[in-house]
Design brief:
By secondary structure, the protein is an alpha/beta fold. It has 4 helices and 5 strands, in the order βαβαβαββα. Keywords: Disulfide bond, Electron transport, Redox-active center, Transport.
Length: 109
């Protein structure tokens, strides 16, 4: 489905993110995090705009602590862009859709 933001857990992270043929934007978030809620519509818009070119997934850091520790997520929201199983871009905090798109575009070109 276009623009779908999938939930990924510690159990599915390897398959869904690291082994993906498509670049994956991972949104590390938690339900209690106000800035995460502010960023959510931007992340969903990116998922729609980049459907077919980029997968967008969310990792709840309360439930999937191992993934967050593996990538040294210290503050949320943190977005990591993975390409070929490697993190190639890190964004911490809330930013506008065009700012996020610019960071993604340089890796999809």
């Amino acid at each position: 489905m276009a623009g779908q933001v999938a939930d990924v857990t510690d159990t599915t992270f390897d398959t869904e993110v690291l082994k993906s043929d498509t670049p994956v934007l991972v949104d590390f978030w938690a339900p209690w995090c106000g800035p995460c809620k502010m960023l959510a519509p931007t992340v969903e818009a990116i998922a729609t705009d980049y459907a077919g070119k980029l997968r967008v997934v969310k990792v709840n850091t309360d439930e999937s602590r191992q993934s967050a520790m593996n990538y040294r997520i210290e503050g949320i929201p943190t977005l990591l862009l993975f390409k070929g199983g490697q993190p190639v871009e890190r964004v911490v905090g809330v930013l506008k859709k065009d700012q996020l798109a610019a960071k993604i575009d340089k890796h999809l070109a």
